[in-house]
Sequence to fold (522 residues):
Amino acid sequence: MKLKAKFIFFIGLVTCCSFGVTFYRTSGFQEELVVEQATRQAKMLFHQIRITRQWVADHNGLFLMKGPGVEPNPFLDQGQIQDEQGNWLVKRNPAMVTRELSAYAAKEGMGQFNVTSLQPLNPTNAPDDFERRSLRKFEAGIAEAVEIEKISGTYLLRYMAPLSVESNCLRCHGHQGYEVGDIRGGMNVTIPMDWAYAEIRINNRMLLNIGLATIVIVSVAIFLLFDILVAKRLKVLARAINQYPERRCVAGTSAEDRSDEIGVLAGHFYDLCQRLDRSQQELDATREQVFRSEKLAALGRLVAGVSHEINNPLGGMQNCIQTMRKNVDKPELIARYLGLLGQGVERIKGTVQQLLKIGRKEPLVLQRGDIDEMLRECLELTCMGRRNIVIDLQPGVPRTVVAGMEALRQVVMNLAGNAVQAMGEEGGTLTATSRIVDGVLVIEVADTGPGIAAEHLDKIFEPFFTTKEVGEGTGLGLSVSYSLVEGMGGELSACNGPDGGAVFTLRVPLSDEPETPTEGRI
Fold:
């Protein structure tokens, strides 16, 4: 999953969780608020009915004209009286007024209310489960009771508060043993709540739609902002990293553009590129110096062996000259000695030419040359003056091959020089083989020395690593050779031979292109 997708996913998840908590709390708070408002409405209605009941009680009840639907209450003493005109009047006490007002309110959909007690005079005023629980709570000292009930699929808020005995209540309830201040019962106010819950559902749907729209808008905005401010700039920086060092000046990565974190990162990358460029330049200069030093060191090691290769012919030539001076009158002898002088000069000339090929500094260029001839020259130069070294050259490469001849010459000289030093004074056999496998030139240089220790095999190509005594080597020969082979697109490896000694294998791809012009060589 890409960083952008992860970022959008987690931001969306956090937003959804945050909105879910907010939605849940808002919905609960909304329900609490509606219930609180309905409870206040029920309290107001309770007090209005209570005051109405008190007024009826203070006036010793109400008398209504007897008629259909207005019947006397059998539970009241003097439930009806006759006036002077002979009309019968029916008495209504506070309980009956409450019940009849409740019937009118129910018809209008305003709720219901009724009075009940644990010891009702009228069985129709017997309490239900909620009223019974509430009355018992009142006896325990609780001031009011509120519950939400769902009856026949309808939500109802039920509010109940106690009714205490007053002096005017004793007219009807004194015989029940009540005293002023006792809890005679309670009045229950029931308010329908379906309208409230319908409003809550509408508001919840509205909040949910707003929340979903907000999440979508926020996600799209974050996606676009992330793409513009982060993703695209990271792509530019990644492209700059991939193109380095081919393109060193990349737009948007300069040190001046550091207004935010990505700009700071790009600026650090720009600074790093600058440091790498400077380090590469210094490394190239150091490498050139090391290459030259290694060549000069190799030439120095050859001087001892080359000196007698030149001194011996010179000594013979000097003897020929002295003999010729003594026998100037013998033309046949002079002619024979002149031939010997010519052979000595050619031998010295060949030795000097081989040294010049090794000593010159040349760039890595493709040349057409004879690999076997190059190997022969390198091995002979390396083994000059070492009569205890046997050269075993096993040819196998055609005479015309296009490759980096001078670089190969330097590598072979380093490998052969290390082999000669490894075999030491006891001497041995220095073997070089060449072959071509699938367009790849393979050269192996093997010796019969002690070989390479197992713990050193993975370190021998590291710069400055050497097992020689102090002053006998710099530890750069194999490192330089490894770099030269890498520069030709090849590889250089080392192992121990089955019969002892070290074997170095050089693999370099050959080119089918014409040889590179070599003008301007040093």
About this structure: The domain at 30-199 is CATH 3.30.450 (Beta-Lactamase). Confidence is low (pLDDT under 50) at residues 250-255, 516-522. Residues 84 and 520 are 151 Å apart (CA to CA).
